[in-house]
């Protein structure tokens, strides 16, 4: 597949979306491997990573492929696992198994481990970009659910999408997501450790903002186990904490900027 072949990319995206709609975990991991995920990661990472991780967010599926991104950026062979830093100074391992463990999102085979060696800076930056795309996709999925509900739910004889308060919440969610996606795209186009850190922070904060607004738009139905929103919210909480939470990363960026005494240009506008 040529990176510039838009038709091939569209077909690949459609194939991956269909696969993710019916599989998660180890089964999806094997399916992506069969499609040549590791080869794409090595040859066209700037296309493969946004495509795969954004689709994971949009479909609500999950696979342990973040391990591959971090391992590849560290110069190691993919297909294994690697301890990853988590919010609060803890470490977690995302296993390549079907077995799920409970840690906020009980669908994920992720569990705490003893503190490991530090992750190389380049690998940490690559992982943050990937998780940023996943958070953007998750946010888009939540916004789509809330938008559909606002158009379908009728009160006082008209869709609640016509109410100004509902429109404001959806608009704020959209602005947060568009800003986060621009930050992650900038970090993808011009990789830089600080840019990746800020992109992950922006994506995490955007996902949390979208969670809050979409929960309000959906009302009571959004709290039910039958609705998909709660799964996306829990996934957002886990992903925000992975490789540093938005709160922690903003503080880290502030410390770095104070130490250098200037703010570098992160993107060409």
From TrEMBL:
Presence of the UniProt keyword Oxidoreductase in the record: yes
Top-level taxonomic group: Bacteria
EC number from the UniProt entry: 1.3.8.1
Record carries keyword Oxidoreductase: yes
Keywords, in A-Z order: FAD, Flavoprotein, Oxidoreductase
Entry's Gene Ontology molecular function annotations: short-chain fatty acyl-CoA dehydrogenase activity
Domain Acyl-CoA dehydrogenase/oxidase C-terminal: 122-242
InterPro entries reported in the protein's UniProt record: AcylCo_DH-like_C, AcylCo_DH/oxidase_C
Gene3D superfamilies the UniProt entry points to: Butyryl-CoA Dehydrogenase, subunit A, domain 3
PANTHER family per the UniProt record, alphabetical: ACYL-COA DEHYDROGENASE, ACYL-COA DEHYDROGENASE FADE28
Name the record gives this protein: Acyl-CoA dehydrogenase, short-chain specific
Species whose genome carries this gene: Mycobacterium innocens
């Amino acid at each position: 597949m040529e990176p510039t072949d838009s038709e091939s990319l569209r077909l690949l995206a459609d194939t991956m979306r269909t696969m993710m709609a019916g599989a998660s975990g180890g089964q999806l991991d094997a399916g992506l491997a069969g499609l040549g995920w590791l080869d794409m990661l090595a040859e066209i990472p700037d296309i493969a990573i946004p495509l795969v991780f954004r689709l994971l967010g949009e479909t609500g599926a999950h696979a342990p492929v973040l391990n591959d991104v971090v391992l590849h950026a560290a110069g190691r062979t993919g297909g294994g696992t690697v301890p990853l830093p988590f919010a609060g100074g803890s470490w977690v391992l995302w296993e390549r198994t079907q077995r799920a463990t409970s840690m906020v999102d009980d669908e994920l085979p992720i569990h705490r481990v003893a503190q490991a060696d530090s992750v190389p800076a380049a690998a940490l930056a690559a992982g943050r970009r990937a998780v940023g795309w996943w958070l953007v996709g998750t946010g888009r999925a939540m916004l789509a659910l809330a938008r559909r509900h606002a158009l379908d739910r009728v009160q006082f004889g008209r869709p609640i999408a016509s109410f100004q308060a509902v429109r404001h919440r959806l608009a704020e969610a959209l602005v947060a997501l568009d800003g986060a996606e621009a930050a992650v795209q900038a970090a993808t186009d011009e990789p830089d450790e600080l840019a990746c850190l800020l992109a992950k922070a922006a994506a995490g904060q955007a996902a949390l903002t979208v969670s809050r607004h979409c929960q309000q738009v959906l009302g009571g139905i959004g709290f039910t186990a039958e609705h998909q929103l709660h799964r996306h919210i829990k996934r957002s909480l886990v992903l925000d904490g992975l490789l540093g939470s938005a709160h922690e990363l903003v503080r880290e960026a502030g410390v770095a900027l104070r130490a250098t005494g200037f703010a570098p240009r992160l993107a060409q506008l």
